[in-house]
Design a protein that fits this description.
Helices cover about 35% and strands about 15% of the residues. By secondary structure, the chain is α+β, with helices and mostly antiparallel strands. It has one domain: 3-Layer(aba) Sandwich (Beta-lactamase), CATH 3.40.710.10. The radius of gyration is 19 Å and the shape is globular.
Length: about 350
């Protein structure tokens, strides 16, 4: 029996309470494709602000693609100009360079929808110029992925949106109109609003919610990607089935370690299991706007939940349990038993 209606029953109370207005959930496997979809997409709107899924869906595959056979641990990037201390691409990708998790790059740079990229980058350079307080260890950092996107553009001489679109089309044989940066006016009409921004004094619809990404012109390595549920599904199926994806998910995957927090830019666990199963990899990523995807290499199963939960506020108490419940229902659909955390 399909759990589609159970997923709807779990999510719809948040819609009725005004915590979110749109959602899309799906799960499947590499062998069976997408097995189940549940969605509430009124008004014909389908494009979500994917927020930090950008790190996993854009930066992880692009860095590996451009690095090719070069070891990420040996490729170095200067933190500030040519004279600053250097860190490896691997440490940045896995949030192990010890960079601060966040710095305010947007203040004074949000007057225009296209932001003020040069001013924001100058502020970032200033913040990274004195790294004496940086301690190489795991610390989730937006700044590291901003630096990785700058490395990609410098290495290729191309903009991040152009480079990513080319990767989708040439490497994954996927159209670029389901995953993209900076929505066109037509795409904005089909984008899902995330919130009213009191700083920018406007509704955000087809405009990135993250203030730093907005200050950077909507294009960054830590946020800025928009896409539909079908776009994320297609990416996961194509990427994980590709030679690069197979190397990522199987050849390089080490023995399970409960203490590991990140693997090549994909988060580990994300506290979806209650309690977590021993020796079981769950890889994926969460996004601040209410997005998430997960992947279990052992079973080759995946799932996603896309929402605009920021309509209910920047901080809401219910999103974590909702994610756990949808994850458990998707696992049940796929024959991977987990325990639901909300009554249905």
């Amino acid at each position: 029996m399909s759990n589609q209606h159970a997923i709807d029953r779990a999510i719809l109370p948040s819609v009725r309470a005004g915590g979110l207005t749109h959602y899309y959930a799906a799960c499947g496997s590499l062998s069976g494709g997408v097995l189940q979809r549940s969605a509430h997409l009124p008004g014909g709107r389908r494009f979500f602000d994917l927020s930090s899924l950008t790190k996993a869906l854009v930066i992880t595959p692009l860095v590996q693609w451009i690095a090719k056979d070069r070891a990420l641990s040996e490729l170095k990037l200067c933190l500030s100009g040519e004279s600053g201390p250097s860190v490896s691409l691997l440490s940045l990708l896995q949030h192990e360079a010890g960079l601060p998790f966040w710095r305010n790059l947007w203040i004074g740079n949000l007057a225009r929808p296209e932001g003020n990229r040069s001013a924001a980058l100058a502020r970032l350079d200033l913040d990274l110029h004195a790294p004496s307080s940086f301690s190489p260890s795991y610390l989730y950092s937006d700044l590291g992925h901003i630096l990785l996107s700058m490395w990609l553009e410098k290495e290729t001489g191309r903009s991040l949106p152009e480079l990513y679109g080319d990767f989708l089309e040439t490497e994954l044989k996927q159209k670029r109109d389901l995953l993209f940066y900076t929505p066109t006016e037509e795409q904005k009409k089909r984008s899902i609003p995330t919130a009213y921004c009191r700083i920018r004094e406007r509704w955000l619809c087809g405009e990135v919610h993250d203030e730093n990404a907005s200050a950077l012109g909507g294009v960054s390595g830590h946020a800025g990607l928009f896409g539909s549920g079908e776009g994320v599904e297609t990416f996961l199926l194509h990427f994980l089935s590709s030679s690069q994806g197979r190397g990522f998910s199987f050849d390089q995957l080490p023995t399970y370690e409960a203490s590991r927090r990140s693997f090549l830019g994909w988060q580990v666990g994300m506290a979806l299991d209650t309690p977590p199963l021993p020796s079981s990899w769950i890889l994926g990523h969460q996004g601040f706007t209410g997005t998430l995807f997960w992947w279990e290499p052992r079973s080759a199963c995946f799932g996603l939940l896309l929402t605009n939960r920021t309509m209910g506020g920047r901080q809401v108490s219910w999103i974590h349990k909702l994610r756990q419940t949808v994850f458990a229902l998707q696992c049940k659909e796929l024959g991977l038993e987990r325990t639901c955390t909300l009554p249905l």
